[in-house]
Amino acid sequence: MAATLPSLAIPGQRLGSTTSYAAGPGTHVHDTVIYASIAGPVIVDQAQAKSKSKSLLTVSRSINRQTGATPSGAATVKPTVSTTAPKPATTKPKLKYNTLPAVDSVVLARVTRVQKRQVAVSILVVLDELSSTQVSDPSKTTSDNDNIESILSSAANPENHSSSDELRFQALIRKEDVRAVEKDRVVMDEMFRVGDIVRGTIISLGDQSFYYITTARNDLGVVMARSEAGNMMFPVSWKEMRDPVTSLGELRKVARPF
């Protein structure tokens, strides 16, 4: 009798055998046994009834906002849909929070180091689908990821930079990923400064040390920045922000305001 799959897995946890399942994203195989590679809910994609293929066993990076993990202790099973019957209209599940940054995740990050060919950033928060619609009742928020205002307020304070950056996920913005046009003319010192808050998208999980982020879209780039005088600036164009006190402008790769 096959062992019951857990609803939530932790890295290294034994999930099942390759005789019963095929290993999917978030898992790895060792000696015909499938283990979890990341923390997250366990999902089983059932094979088609007439197919000889095995059910796909995966560990997701995200938890469903509405249902979360299954309360029964069993893995979430995705039902199969017949190819002859019309597909029912389904709504993409909304995510409560992401356990890890994933490819195509939109993140807010703080610039920690600017070099000639790349910028190092510290990821502050992974934005989910409800990031633009904050919960009106603060008592109903169950994750730090929901309270983006407090995260940005803390991140904008220079006194909090050194104490928290080393505890966060690190990422790089390479010169060729700053913008979509005239990439050879990009000067990193004119695009970002240390302390800037940047909205970007994960394009690669990178290596064991850094994710890779791009800002090569109009809605991506610097969203919060302080001037050399220490004042919060506001955007005046896609490449300039201005100090409201001194009226002096500074170059940035500015994200388009919503």
Structure write-up:
It is a single chain. The chain is 7% helix and 34% strand. The protein has 258 residues and is mainly beta. The chain has two domains: 8-59, Beta Barrel (OB fold (Dihydrolipoamide Acetyltransferase, E2P)); 105-133 and 143-251, Nucleic acid-binding proteins (OB fold (Dihydrolipoamide Acetyltransferase, E2P)). Strand 14 and strand 15 form a beta hairpin. The longest helix is centred in the middle third of the chain and has 8 residues, at 148-155. Residues 65-72, 92-97 and 129-146 have low confidence and may be disordered.
Task: Give a concise summary.
The protein is mainly beta and 258 residues long.
What descriptors fit this protein?
mainly beta; 7% helix; 5-stranded mixed sheet; OB fold (Dihydrolipoamide Acetyltransferase, E2P); elongated; 258 residues; 5-stranded mixed β-barrel; 19 strands; 3 helices; single chain; cytoplasm
